[in-house]
Specification:
- The longest helix is centred in the C-terminal third of the chain and has 22 residues, at about 160-180.
- A hairpin with an 8-residue loop joins β1 and β2.
- By secondary structure, this protein is an alpha+beta fold.
- It has helices at about 30-35, 55-70, 80-90, 110-115, 115-125, 160-180, and strands at about 5-10, 15-20, 20-25, 100-105, 125, 140.
- Strands 1-2 form a two-stranded antiparallel ribbon. Strands 3-4 form a two-stranded antiparallel ribbon.
- The chain starts with a strand and ends with a helix.
Length: about 180
């Protein structure tokens, strides 16, 4: 069963629709990756690791940027699907009949179950305020001041207001970095 959701994005052509499905317990990821690498045109989709996504806004921002680049002939990759993945990657160096997994609703609550905050911080070079940088001069951005953090909250997956605030701050920083990268 697919829980495919369709979106229209402002400032893009009326006939441009985005279709998103979120899956968990995917059992054929290797097969799907193989199809993409082989260039199988039946698999022209953007398969994205949900552990690197903070929210629906994070994903939709990458989709908008990729689509905008497509319509303005600025793609840096071979197609808009690859461009979406490219937009989500700071390191520049779906389809129910093909995915063997459990479809779940595409919303922030579900996405938060997948998100690996450490992976997001590492990908965008963001340093937690309580974390000591390995080098004297850190190139990473710092999240929320350590004194404003509840010292008992170790993860932003929790329901505490502090965890939600940290997740919101992280999302703002990631979206800002994505926007800055798109402007160059």
């Amino acid at each position: 069963m697919s829980l495919l959701q369709s979106f229209k994005l402002d400032h893009l052509p009326e006939d441009f629709a985005v279709h998103i499905a979120l899956y968990q317990n995917v059992r054929n990821a290797a097969f799907l990756q193989q199809q993409l690498l082989q260039g199988n045109t039946d698999f022209e989709y953007a398969f994205i690791d949900a552990s690197a996504i903070l929210s629906s806004t994070h994903l939709l921002a990458a989709i908008f940027r990729a689509a905008n680049d497509k319509f303005n002939d600025r793609l840096k990759s071979k197609n808009v699907h690859a461009e979406m993945v490219f937009c989500l990657s700071m390191n520049n160096n779906h389809l129910s009949e093909s995915i063997q997994g459990d479809a779940v609703p595409f919303n922030d609550a579900e996405i938060s179950h997948f998100t690996d905050i450490g992976k997001v911080r590492k990908a965008y070079k963001l340093v937690d305020a309580g974390e000591q940088p390995r080098r004297q001069k850190s190139k990473g951005l710092r999240l929320r001041d350590a004194q404003s953090q509840d010292k008992n909250v170790n993860s932003v997956h929790g329901d505490s207001s502090c965890a939600k605030a940290e997740r919101r701050d992280l999302e703002i920083m990631v979206l800002g970095l994505m926007a800055l990268r798109g402007a160059t």
